[in-house]
Specification:
single chain; mainly alpha
């Protein structure tokens, strides 16, 4: 019997984790990925017109990598309720932007110069879209917490006293009936 309870508890926990994972993918992952694809697609379209010397096949993955960094950083910063996350992500984005700026000035990477500004644009635009998606998720969490607190308050302060009065009335009636039966039995 103990083993069945432990197995059921484990299965429930795995199911809960799976639902959380699916919800995270649907609410955070897919919108962020869609925004990143739109951004990278727009930049790839622009790169096709400027025809960088490194070629479109090398430029698009380069830009995509920086767009994904920005998207993930934006979602984490937007969804997080901790102040330290914003500071850490600002530092990470600063380092990545500095790396791109350094690459832009590096003479041996001269052929990448037309692509690097587009990578910066992708980084910043995807960070912004990630912040929007993450902020929307944080707003959902806050609204859910407020609704739960309101329901708890109503239960404690409105429905609780009414239910208590109803139970007291039932109990009083039961006691009166018991006393009446006992009095009739004593006669």
């Amino acid at each position: 019997m103990q083993l069945l309870n432990e197995t059921a508890a484990f299965d429930a926990q795995v199911a809960n984790y799976w639902l959380s994972f699916k919800y995270g993918i649907l609410v955070l992952g897919l919108p962020t990925l869609a925004c990143t694809i739109v951004i990278v697609g727009s930049i790839a379209f622009a790169l096709a017109f400027i025809r960088p010397r490194v070629g479109l096949a090398q430029s698009v993955p380069f830009v995509t990598a920086f767009a994904m960094i920005g998207s993930v950083a934006g979602v984490i910063a937007g969804a997080s309720m901790e102040a330290i996350v914003g500071g850490i992500l600002t530092a990470i984005l600063g380092i990545v932007s500095s790396l791109l700026t350094w690459l832009f000035g590096k003479e041996t990477l001269r052929i990448w110069r037309p692509v690097i500004p587009w990578a910066l644009i992708a980084l910043l635009m995807s960070t912004l879209t990630g912040l929007i998606v993450g902020g929307a998720r944080r707003a959902q969490i806050i609204a859910s917490d407020i609704a739960q607190e309101q329901a708890k308050f109503e239960n404690q302060n409105i429905y609780g006293p009414v239910e208590l009065e109803r139970r007291r009335a039932i109990m009083k009636k039961c006691i009166e009936e018991r006393d009446a039966r006992q009095a009739a039995a004593d006669c």
